Amino acid sequence: MFYRPEDGHGLPHNPFNAIVAPRPIGWISTRGASGDNLAPYSFFNAIAYTPPQVMFSSTGVKDSLTAIRESGVFCVNIVGIDMAVQMNETSAALPRGTDEFDHAGLEKAACETIDCPRVAGAPAALECRVTQVIDLKGGANHMVLGEVIGVHLRDDCVVDGRFDVTQFSPLSRLGYHDYAAVSEVFEMVRPT
User: Fold this and answer.
1) How far is residue 192's CA from residue 186's CA, in Å, rounded to a whole number?
2) How far apart, in whole angstroms, are the C-alpha atoms of residue 134 and residue 43?
3) Rounded to an integer, what is the distance from CA 33 to the centroid of its chain?
4) Cα 136 from chain centroid?
5) Residue-by-residue DSSP string for 81-115
6) Angle of CA points 39, 41, 47, to nearest 5°
7) What is the rounded CA–CA span in Å between residue 51 and residue 87?
8) Distance (Å, rounded) from C-alpha 181 to C-alpha 188?
9) Chain centroid to CA 15: how far?
């Protein structure tokens, strides 16, 4: 099968949502004039080591993007399988000003370097300062770039000096309504 996105795919569901998978989930927390906000974004990833940088994209101007434009900061909370239900609860279309932490029954913790809450039990949280917001093609698409200026690691996830994802099984988005969790890893050393 071949199709041009501009012509449509003819399938009951858009395959592009499932092709680039698995995608990590950036559970973005913000604080703005309308209060605290928490929302998952599956168009998310790390993009540079030094300095460490991340990106996520938003379709439409959601509460997260509004707060980011106001404050210039955000926090990326990493989602483990044990928080899948709460993560999904925070994706609900709630009235502006609703605190998704409260809605999903999640405990907040303060960030160290930015005025923003984070998910207290998250395996890791990345405190970020916005470096750029880019309006992407399509009019409703916005990419947020941020420099990581503070990192929280849950103590039980650090094993023998390494951040061990098998301690929390990261949740990822596959497309449609499908998700996966990392349950095993293997190592391959890069050839010299």
Assistant:
1) 19
2) 14
3) 21
4) 18
5) GGGHHHHHHTTS-PPTT--HHHHHT--EEE-SSSS
6) 130
7) 28
8) 20
9) 21
Tokens 């928490």 belong to which residue?
Answer: 38
Report the sign of the C-alpha dihedral through residues 180, 93, 124, 67, in that order: positive
Distance CA 129, CA 147 (A): 5
Residue 149 parent element (H or E) = strand 141-153
Kindly give the confidence (pLDDT) of every residue in the chain, 192 residues in length, as a single tens digit, with 9 standing for 90 and above: 999 999 999 999 999 989 999 999 999 999 999 999 999 999 999 999 999 999 999 987 788 999 999 999 999 999 999 999 999 999 999 998 899 999 999 999 999 999 999 999 999 999 999 999 999 998 799 999 999 999 999 999 999 999 999 999 999 999 899 999 998 999 999 999
Phi, psi of 5 (to 5 degrees): -50, -35
Which residue intervals of 41-158 are DSSP H helices? 63-71, 84-89, 100-104
Q: What is the CA radius of gyration of the chain?
A: 17
Taking Cα atoms as reference points, which of 127, 149, 134 lies closest to residue 74?
Answer: 127
Strand 141-153 and strand 124-135: pairing? antiparallel
CATH 3.30.429.10 holds for 23-181: no
Query: Which amino acid, one-letter code, is at 89?
Result: E
Give the C-alpha separation, 165 to 176, whole Å.
24
